[in-house]
Recover the amino acids of this structure.
């Protein structure tokens, strides 16, 4: 029992370390403009926008990861591997963000950017199924689980739609991603079952 | 109750991870001179100055964050988001520091540098209001809160003044920032209410 | 007793911090293609492959490190130094990965890549001997230890073979490494003695 | 009391985060050779040597920091600031290491490299005085303190000598630094008073 807790705690701390490095390096990769003028800074708006969206997304992913691990009982072998898969897809965000910013929101990078968001959500869903659904927790009602699952599928659907849309209208794809993030901003459903904030 | 503590602790650890990466990478971004002479090293004084000031500022921000979280009772949804906003503004410091250093203290980068300091303070103030003021803590007297708030507004005012001043006299703006940091170096007011160091 | 635990805990947390930075920066070092097309992204397949393999390897190393420290009773001076040697060899992975990717799987980088894998395993074996074998733990049977040791030697042998093979057929060497990783994916033997996942 | 522990713990964790990032990024800054041959790798020996020495030094600094914080009772304002000064000097190591490696052990970089080692030791000594000497700990005898202080002064003297020596014979300065590190490798004196490893 005590060992189970340690295992889960170390996994949580390790994941937090990875999140902390990813979210920080993301913003650090923004290179200052060559000229020392406000105009040169404003020229960088696609960089600013894509980094802002990525920061917001990683923040949401961290919050959801945090919530999920409050419910997780133990770090089984599978939970560890799904977590690594989840962290791997999150760690691809800075790469695609940089590509998106450098191309100033071109079609291929916008689409790949949305695809990574889909991967992050799929690995998160796998992590949820493994760590919550397979355990017989009585404090999560069937209704809450259904709502939660529905929201996950809708999010994956919307991000997939954004990936397809971006092939023709990259800006529309990015706009759809921003819209999804607003929907995803609060982990309400899971939260409703817990006093924990 | 136990869950509340976990939530707050994980938020603290995550924030510390982000602070650790930001403060370290800040110094790591200093590129060594091309020539292997002392003269070439001395030539880098604007880089040294701006990195020193940024390091000091992030240290102060960390200390204040640390103090604040000693008083914070639980990590509510709002505390989490204001904390992400605070970390986001802190994470912009290396970007502006690099721009400031590369331009050798030009007007626009100096002004933007001060603006980021204002953002860091505003998000910190929001975090304070959310995590301390809204809770009915009897161990923080009204007088202490008033003093603390006054100091926050003075700091924000001084950094804003530095941002405007830097448009015409960048060096004066940077000097005013340095002066502010000396004022901000000790979180005395909050500390006076607690034996905790 | 309490101090022993603190020491071990701090060593674990420090190691996790190092692992978190290594695994993250590894993926962050992937530079986006210059052109904004899917073709340009596909051109990067050697980069993608080598980063994927390295990520998987570091994940396996972390899991094994995690398991080992569950059995470690105290962080002696030697455990601390073997752990630093282990982390040092792990920290060379991004360097060799980048060389491997840039050379598009050439002979010398492929061989050095396998050599680093050998170093990681040798330092891990030293860490095992020091932290588990020298303590008289009754909950690890002789049979389990023998199995575990045998598996370690086979792994080191296979990685050494991959290092030699890569000198003539780099792709075969990399393929052999991938095969080893599949064998190493589950720390079953040690796990069999513990309910801990 | 409980709050004191939290403060010290958070300071320890934050410091560990900074150490983890510094020691990792140090090795990550090694850039792979342009050619995919063993000869090109061997050409990088000054890089390899300087990174190896820096890694060893940071490992020693971490171990000493760890030992010191086992004795530290509470994180006072001064301990926090001396710790930031210590971390700042440690964070300059990658910068000087890179300069040293790029110049292939030239005079000025070798001397500055030794100067940073002196700074790291001075800030460590200040941290020791503040956190151990000023508290009335009966479990550290006068004799142990005297031995410890003597060793610190000898180390600072040797690193200063290395800084001067390096101005004329850089390789001799670096050799003297390596010699010092061997002396410093075990925190025996402090350890003798504690069963903690």
């Amino acid at each position: 029992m005590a060992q189970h807790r340690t295992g889960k705690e170390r996994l949580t701390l390790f994941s937090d370390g990875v999140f902390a490095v990813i979210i920080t390096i993301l913003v650090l990769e923004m290179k200052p403009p060559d000229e020392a003028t406000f105009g040169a800074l404003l020229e960088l708006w696609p960089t600013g926008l894509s980094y802002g969206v990525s920061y917001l997304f990683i923040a949401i992913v961290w919050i959801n990861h945090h919530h999920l691990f409050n419910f997780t009982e133990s770090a089984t072998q599978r939970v560890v591997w799904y977590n690594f898969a989840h962290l791997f897809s999150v760690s691809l965000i800075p790469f695609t963000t940089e590509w998106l910013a450098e191309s100033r929101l071109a079609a291929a990078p916008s689409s790949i950017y949305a695809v990574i968001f889909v991967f992050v959500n799929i690995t998160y869903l796998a992590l949820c199924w493994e760590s919550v659904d397979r355990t017989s927790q009585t404090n999560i009602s069937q209704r809450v689980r259904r709502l939660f699952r529905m929201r996950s599928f809708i999010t994956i659907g919307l991000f997939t739609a954004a990936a397809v849309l971006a092939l023709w209208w990259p800006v529309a794809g990015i706009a759809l991603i921003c819209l999804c993030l607003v929907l995803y901003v609060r982990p309400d459903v899971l939260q409703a079952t817990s006093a924990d904030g």
Observations:
- Confidence is low (pLDDT under 50) at residues 1-5, 189-197 of chain A.
- Chain A has nine helices and no strands.
- Chain A has one domain: 2-196.
- Residues 144 and 189 of chain A are 6 Å apart (CA to CA).
